[in-house]
Structure formats: structure tokens, C-alpha cells
């Protein structure tokens, strides 16, 4: 089993290093690692955020453990050379369309949320975000209007096949959880959303046991603050999923705790914390590695089919928190390596 | 001075009636009212959500006091006949491009928010949302892919002129407040956002006294939960503004409290609560009319140039709350008319 390690930019190398220590401690037979360059780090080294060797490694690997990309030094580069193109390129080239972002409060951290404790502690939801389509990947560019004005444009679209396959992911996830699926769109304004809604309704015929509801994205953003405990699984498109999952992560308390998986049709997956590269704290040992450790756990569960080992990682993280391990984002003083130590001690 | 009253659907008529009572109590000389049909109510009566007589009245009026549109009976109509087309059509036809959505906690309601009291009570922000462009008004439709699949599409775009005029609104609003402007976009993915950011930076040269920052929309959704007190004025596009302003409203406690104004170049304006038509509680006297009353206040301030009268309305709402007036959404038992009575008593 080959794992590609892509640390990337900013705090990426620090947090991936801790997740690797935890994986090493599990001593899983037959697992091997190869490291690749992505993001601003790759651009600086070889002139491209997703070099061909990296892409080739990603395709060969059973799973990718990803840190983060994003580097302010690269802000003025042409779009196709920016760090973010690494993650967008990997999602596209490997067909990684199903982005799973669970949000659940660890009881020890319920008071870290800006939400009232009784509101925050009810959160146990999963956002299933489509990551191969939408306005992210449509034709886009700069052009001139007939009057000669500069105009930026991006085409948003989904076809029925794209919606159908992510809808199935959403329904299946709901079936494995509490049986509730909320599809989020903006069908009162967007034709893309209207097709989305039509197809989700068609697919629902296969899942009579799942309770399906629909919500406009503006209302969903509101409900995620008002009463996030009402949600089980949310299925939505690439752009709305980007916004709502970051919002949900903060409802949970710290974005430093949230893991994600992005799967393709053959369960090959990319695993990453949902936070970014945090250039402001890079290299200072302040980053919380737990989201990356938990992402490694998701990797064992979804791509390597090692559920017991995944459970061990999750239990170790919970125990480390229960034992009082707190990084800066959680109101504590432990550095990145000490947080790794705490998980290892709990293992 | 002519005010067009457009009650619309659901709770619209009930809440507009209370705002009208408050306006009447001010006995403003020279003000007159004409009522028009919009939304599902207009469709049911005359077959179109924005009939020509309504549009004509809107154009003649100095200001529009709007209730809400949206009616589940109309969900399966063709898009151009749905209730939402009334508000979209008015924004477009009258050039109402600058949507101002203030969010501030009334001290009496700080504990109504799902956010911790210390987080919620720091909120005092204004969202300046562009409402004449973006993916709302681009070409859109259903088509077939080359393989024959159904596909929905919507073109997102902004030109420099559209961005420039809303950027000026944002900077001017910031100058009149605490001097901080945060422009929200998704420039790491969208060309529309890249143009947005470029033009906002160009415009900033005229406002050296305003501190400008930029934030990606996913991060903004997160920060609005984590620490909404950090924001003064947020300027953003139509779609992101839709999502973030609803989210911000819930951070404040109840969407039943938030007013909005949408202005064009000649200060003609449409004034509406930011909540919707709430068909589930329509006709039951459960709706909170305060957002509409406060919208009437904004109307006096921005379109009728009657700041003292606007202050009177705002003070009366604050006093009614201080005196204990609470509708259902605020945890109380007062009905819509009783809430109106409370404001009148406080006037
Ligand atoms: C870095 C950026 C392109 C990316 C996205 O918008 O998808 C990130 O925000 C995410 O959510 O993974
Ligand atoms: C009703 C709908 C079309 C509208 C919008 O999305 O603009 C509403 O949500 C709003 O925010 O005014």
C-alpha cells in the first residue's frame, strides 16, 4: 500500500510530520510512503504547483495525505501557477469528486466554540461536498464588454451525471448515519441548482428509508448558526460546500480539529485537514496537528480498509484531549510536536 | 412623497401593516401611499409576479416598502413566473444595486443569539451587497452536454463599472462608521472575484483613510462565527452577500430584527426585512414586525432624508424591547399587532 505524502506550504510540513509519526506508531504491515512537492513549495522548487512527478505519484498511490497549500508570495502569479491549483488539479485529475467533511464536537472542546455550549454540543453532521464541478471548473476568464470594460466571468454548471453520483454518496452516508439528508442549493435563482434539485429528487426514489429535505444556501448558513444540531448529512455543490463546511468547522470550535476525505469512484482518496496553510504561524510550532492526524484516520478507514486502526487513531485523539492536551487554537500552550506526543502517548 | 407599499406573500401583509401604522403615527406631511401586488399574490391575482402596474408604480415612487415574496404553491412554475422574480425584477429594473444590511445586537436581545453573549454583543457590522449583477443576472438555462446529458448553467460575471460603484458605496459607508472595509471574494478560484479584487484595490486609492482588507468567502463565513466583532463594513457580490448576510442576521439573534435598504444611483430605494415570507406562520399573528418597522426607518433616512424621524423609529423599537416586548421568535408571546402596539406606545 502506497501513501503519497504531500506536505505543501506554510504549516503543512509540521502537521503532516506529526500525522506520519502517528501512522508509524501503528506499524501497519505493507504500508510505504513517498513524498511529493505541491503548492507554493513546488512552484518555488520546480516552477509548477503540481509538477508531473507529483501527479504521477498521486495516481500511483492508494491514498494521499495532504497538508495544505497557499502562499502569499504567490498571490500575483498567473492563476495556473498559484498554489491552490495543486489541490484543484489533484481533485480533477484523479476524479476526486466526493469530499466528506464531518463536524462533531469533542465533548472536551464544547466550550471552545463561539456558539453557546448547548448549541455547539448538539453538532454531529457530515457535509458531502461535490469537488469536480460547479463554478470551480467551468470556463472562466477576463474579457471586454461591448463598451470596452474589463469583465471577469466564470461559468457555473452541473450535469445530471455529476449530481447523481454525489447524490448517491449523500444518501448512502445518511443511511449509514441517522437517515436524514438535506440538499442545499439556490434553486430560486440558479438553473444549476434547479437541475441539482431535480436530480436529487430523482435519486431519492432509490432511498425510501432516507428523509430528504431541501434548503436554500442562505437559509442553510443561517440554520448552521441557529440550530446546527438539526442536520445529519448535508449534500451540496462545490462552492456552497466550501463556504458551509468552513462555517460548520468554526461552529465546532476550532478549524484545527476538522479532517476531510475526498474520494473517487475507486475509493482512492485525498486526506487533508480542512484548514489552510496558515502562513502567519508557519514554522513556529503553533499549528494544531490533530485535524491532520484525524485525516490520516479517515485514510485508514476509507482508502486502506483498516477500520480498527482508524478507530485507534480517533480514540487516541479523544484521549489526548481528555487528558488535557491543548494547542494554541484550543486555548492551550502545547506546540505542534507536543500535541503529536500526546496522541502517541494515548495510542 | 410617494411610498409604494408592496406587502407580497406569506407574512408580508401582516408585517407591512404594522410598519404602516408606525409611519402613520409620525404624521409626516406630504407623504402618500399606493399599494401594489407582487410575488405569488400578484401571480395568483393577475398571472405575473411583477405586473406592469406594479413596476410602473415602483418607478414613480420615491421609495418602496416591501414585505416578502415566496410561496410554495408557486414552486413548480416556470422560473420567470415565480414570486422571487418580483424582487429580482425590481432590483434590476430600477437599478437598485446597493443593498445595505446592518447587523447589530440590541442589548436586550444579546442572549437570543446562538452565539455566546460576549461574542454576539460585539457585533456591529454592515454588509454592503451588490444586487444588480453576479450569477443572479447572467445568462442561464438548461442545455444538453455533447453526450446528451441534462445540464444546468449560470454565467457569473462582474464588469469593472459594476464593481467600482459598489466599492465606492462600501468605502463611503466605512468612512462614515469605524473606517474599516473588508472585501469578500473567492479570488483564489474565480476570475469574477479576481476582477472584483483588482477594482476594489484601484478604488481604495480614493480612500486613504479607510483600512481595506480582503477575505475569501469561506474564511469570512468562519470568521462571522468565530469573531464577528472584527468586522465594520463588508462589501461583497450578490451571491456571497446573500449567504453572509443571512448568516450574520442569525448571529445577531433573530432574523426577525434585521432591516435592509437597496438603493440606486438617485437614492430611490427598496426597503425590506431580510427575512422571507415564512409561509409556515403566515396569517397566525406570529410574525415579528420589527425588521419591517426598522426598514421603514431606513427608508426615512436614506430615501426621504428625514433622519430625525428615522431616529424616532429606531429609538421606539429599542424602547419597546427594553420595556419587554417579545414576539415568538424572540422567546416571547406577543403577536404581530401587539408588537406594533408596543412600538406605537414607545413612540
Ligand atoms: C484552496 C481552495 C482552492 C480550496 C477550495 O475552495 O476548494 C479550499 O478552500 C478548500 O475548501 O479545500
Ligand atoms: C428571494 C431571493 C431571490 C433573495 C436573494 O437571493 O437575493 C433573498 O434571499 C434575498 O436575500 O433578498
From TrEMBL, chains A, B:
<dbReference type="GO" id="GO:0009098">
    <property type="term" value="P:L-leucine biosynthetic process"/>
</dbReference>
<keyword id="KW-0460">Magnesium</keyword>
<feature type="site" description="Important for catalysis">
    <location>
        <position position="136"/>
    </location>
</feature>
<feature type="domain" description="Isopropylmalate dehydrogenase-like">
    <location>
        <begin position="2"/>
        <end position="343"/>
    </location>
</feature>
<dbReference type="InterPro" id="IPR004429">
    <property type="entry name" value="Isopropylmalate_DH"/>
</dbReference>
<dbReference type="InterPro" id="IPR019818">
    <property type="entry name" value="IsoCit/isopropylmalate_DH_CS"/>
</dbReference>
<dbReference type="GO" id="GO:0000287">
    <property type="term" value="F:magnesium ion binding"/>
</dbReference>
<feature type="binding site">
    <location>
        <position position="218"/>
    </location>
    <ligand>
        <name>substrate</name>
    </ligand>
</feature>
<feature type="binding site">
    <location>
        <position position="101"/>
    </location>
    <ligand>
        <name>substrate</name>
    </ligand>
</feature>
<feature type="binding site">
    <location>
        <position position="129"/>
    </location>
    <ligand>
        <name>substrate</name>
    </ligand>
</feature>
<feature type="binding site">
    <location>
        <begin position="276"/>
        <end position="288"/>
    </location>
    <ligand>
        <name>NAD(+)</name>
    </ligand>
</feature>
<dbReference type="GO" id="GO:0051287">
    <property type="term" value="F:NAD binding"/>
</dbReference>
<keyword id="KW-0464">Manganese</keyword>
<dbReference type="GO" id="GO:0005829">
    <property type="term" value="C:cytosol"/>
</dbReference>
<feature type="site" description="Important for catalysis">
    <location>
        <position position="186"/>
    </location>
</feature>
<protein>
    <recommendedName>
        <fullName>3-isopropylmalate dehydrogenase</fullName>
        <ecNumber>1.1.1.85</ecNumber>
    </recommendedName>
</protein>
<feature type="binding site">
    <location>
        <position position="91"/>
    </location>
    <ligand>
        <name>substrate</name>
    </ligand>
</feature>
<dbReference type="Pfam" id="PF00180">
    <property type="entry name" value="Iso_dh"/>
</dbReference>
<comment type="subunit">
    <text>Homodimer.</text>
</comment>
<keyword id="KW-0963">Cytoplasm</keyword>
<keyword id="KW-0479">Metal-binding</keyword>
<comment type="similarity">
    <text>Belongs to the isocitrate and isopropylmalate dehydrogenases family. LeuB type 1 subfamily.</text>
</comment>
<keyword id="KW-0432">Leucine biosynthesis</keyword>
<comment type="function">
    <text>Catalyzes the oxidation of 3-carboxy-2-hydroxy-4-methylpentanoate (3-isopropylmalate) to 3-carboxy-4-methyl-2-oxopentanoate. The product decarboxylates to 4-methyl-2 oxopentanoate.</text>
</comment>
<feature type="binding site">
    <location>
        <position position="242"/>
    </location>
    <ligand>
        <name>Mg(2+)</name>
    </ligand>
</feature>
<comment type="pathway">
    <text>Amino-acid biosynthesis; L-leucine biosynthesis; L-leucine from 3-methyl-2-oxobutanoate: step 3/4.</text>
</comment>
<keyword id="KW-0520">NAD</keyword>
<dbReference type="InterPro" id="IPR024084">
    <property type="entry name" value="IsoPropMal-DH-like_dom"/>
</dbReference>
<dbReference type="GO" id="GO:0003862">
    <property type="term" value="F:3-isopropylmalate dehydrogenase activity"/>
</dbReference>
<keyword id="KW-0028">Amino-acid biosynthesis</keyword>
<feature type="binding site">
    <location>
        <position position="246"/>
    </location>
    <ligand>
        <name>Mg(2+)</name>
    </ligand>
</feature>
<feature type="binding site">
    <location>
        <position position="218"/>
    </location>
    <ligand>
        <name>Mg(2+)</name>
    </ligand>
</feature>
<keyword id="KW-0100">Branched-chain amino acid biosynthesis</keyword>
<keyword id="KW-0560">Oxidoreductase</keyword>
